[in-house]
């Protein structure tokens, strides 16, 4: 249970701290360095970014997690093009919140054409 955890939409003034949290969370995890923080910036600049359902997790005024959504297409040959919501960037929660990050922890990867989001439920589970 994490008390005082706030789930909310990301604000423009959060951008730097969100990117810094992502960089620290993924630094040297899968390969030397990290690029996830840069990917967040690219996603935000995309016309397919959906800020209304993208969220940050804040604890005591500090960004400790984030999820971002974008539109994606699944193409069936040359005939069918279907639009889906896609969870693109995994949530990052700082383990025990003592600067020891766990990248991609407590995340359900899911997309859904109705725009429904299970990732918020994952964050809410941390409140229980």
Describe the protein.
With 128 residues, the chain is α+β, with helices and mostly antiparallel strands. The chain has one domain: Gcn5-related N-acetyltransferase (GNAT) (Aminopeptidase, 3-Layer(aba) Sandwich), CATH 3.40.630.30. The protein is built from three helices and six strands. It has a four-stranded antiparallel β-sheet, sandwiched between helices. Strands 5-6 form a two-stranded antiparallel ribbon. Helix 1 packs antiparallel against helix 2. It is globular.
Characteristic key phrases:
3 helices, Aminopeptidase, four-stranded antiparallel beta sheet, 128 residues, 24% helix, alpha+beta, Acetyltransferase (GNAT) domain-containing protein
Distance between the termini: 5 Å
Instruction: Determine the CATH topology.
Output: Aminopeptidase
CATH class: Alpha Beta
Sketch the major β-sheet.
4 strands, antiparallel
Tell me the overall shape.
globular
Summarize the model shown.
It is built from 3 helices and 6 strands, in the order βααβββββα.
List the helices and strands and how they pair.
Blueprint: E1 5-9, H1 15-26, H2 36-45, E2 55-59, E3 62-76, E4 80-89, E5 92-95, E6 100-103, H3 119-127
Antiparallel strand pairs: 1-2, 2-3, 3-4, 5-6
Helix pairs in contact: 1-2
